[in-house]
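User: I'm curious what two different proteins look like when written out as structure tokens. Can you demonstrate?

Assistant: Sure. I'll show them one after the other, since each token string lines up with its own sequence. Here's the first protein:
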Amino acid sequence: MKRKYTPMGMFMGAAIVLWLAAPAHWGDVFIAEESELRQRMLKFYARFEVQLLAFFYWLLNRDFMSRPPVRKFFYYALAKFMAERAIVSQVMTLGEMEDFIRKLPDDGRIAVGPCRCRLATKACDHPLETDIIILTGAPIWLELFPRDYRPIDKEEALRIVRESNEKGLVQMLDRHMYFRGSANYFVICNCCACSCLPIIGYRTFKEDGYHYIPSKYRSEVDLEKCRGCGTCVEICAFGERSLMEGKARVADCQGCGLCVRFCPNQANTMRPR
């Protein structure tokens, strides 16, 4: 029996052959750490970062965002790509962040400046100089904003994250162009629930699937020790804590560890996922 070949079948076959024959690193021009094109894209983002964040903050606070069809449209049209590929956040406990900072190369590529989210939203009075730019991001932000950013060493970076944690801020590590597990770390953020656009986006779009990378740990509650004071509910920037029958409950813990630090009854413990 003679086999018939349709145009669509031939097209699909050719596409599969080309895909299988393509080198695994074909996209490195866009995602590699030292890619000049990727760094140019990051520089473009940095130049307009505050304006973009201000727009997103305005958008997320519109009344129409409470309507599921509208919210889903903006999630799939904008938020999903931004959160999962373009600028991807990773929640960390203080201990994880300290280990990450200690392992940074000793090449001086660390700088600190004002939190871009707080500049954009003007929604709170949390400390401003908490934006720690690292690796390929540091020379970009120092070049574009020499009056705002200054070089620091790893010891000062450690001091900033520790003091931020003491104030109830969440430590997050951001990547640029996240594909196939690429690193591309460029900033350490110390985030709050009132101004942080990734956290606000999480609370807005969680039902639609919005996510970023959680820490390696999650919180567990010892119900015998819990007194139902609500401290952990108040401190959870992600809205993943609640009180049920006088006891704290954990939903989809992102693993920042602040509930452990601030619980007055030592009822919370971080466990490996």
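Here's a second, unrelated protein for contrast:
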Amino acid sequence: MRWLVTGGRGMLAADVLHRIAVTGEPVLALGRDELDLCDARAVRDFVGAYRPRVVVNCAGWTAVDLAETRETEAMEVNGTAVRTLARVCERAGARLVHLSTDYVFDGTAAGPYPEDAEPSPVNAYGRTKLAGERAALEHGQYVVRTAWLYGAGGPNFVRTMTRLAATRPLVDVVDDQRGQPTWSADLADHLVRLAQSDLPPGVYHAVSAGETTWYGLAREVFALLGEDPDRVRPVPSTAFPRPARRPATSLLAVTRGEPIRHWRDALHAAWPVLTGRAPHAGQAVGKVGW
């Protein structure tokens, strides 16, 4: 089975490439400089020549706040380009696995959102990602929503907290947004297994089990570093005003496909990969982070 990974220079793409390499199947990862998904002719010509069996689309506009003032550009990447890719894949008989986000929801639900919940984004980024979802589904493809992603490459919250732990005596972190921290390697494994499965096209959720706040996640990171978690102070979202509104409780229910392990177990397993060292010996799983 021949694979194509778009957005091939990003954090998630690196883990997807590693996971596919284990199978021994041919895979090609392309960044924007090599394949601009906004160029419909280039996409059509490349897919027609390379003839992938599966396309994993890790490309996208991810600058949430910038999308508020540049929504047209974000829509071109997250919406229009996905429509082109989905159409081309459908005609070529290729399976497209497209990545989306919890930001397609408004975050006001009493519990986790199931896959069939009605989306209602509260910011420009969410609107553009929802457009991409609908485009992929219209052409019979797969949409995988994830959230709070971290990994060894690229900027992410875990890396930021690790840096701040070494440079600041106290760190203020938002404690009124709840979510599911998800390791990019776990997500990559999930994506590959979905692409290899007999599951039908549609929407799937791929997030770690359990839930926490950014504050809870930050405390866990400090404890793993051997630092005092009480150096992390909880604050409301209003302490950090941002151009784009964030959903308060963007929890995703996993009712289709396979679940992913608990976020805390994943973070402990990821720690040597993220930092090059083992978790601090005094940190026991399950004691910090709620």
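A detail about the second structure: Confidence is low (pLDDT under 50) at residues 284-290.
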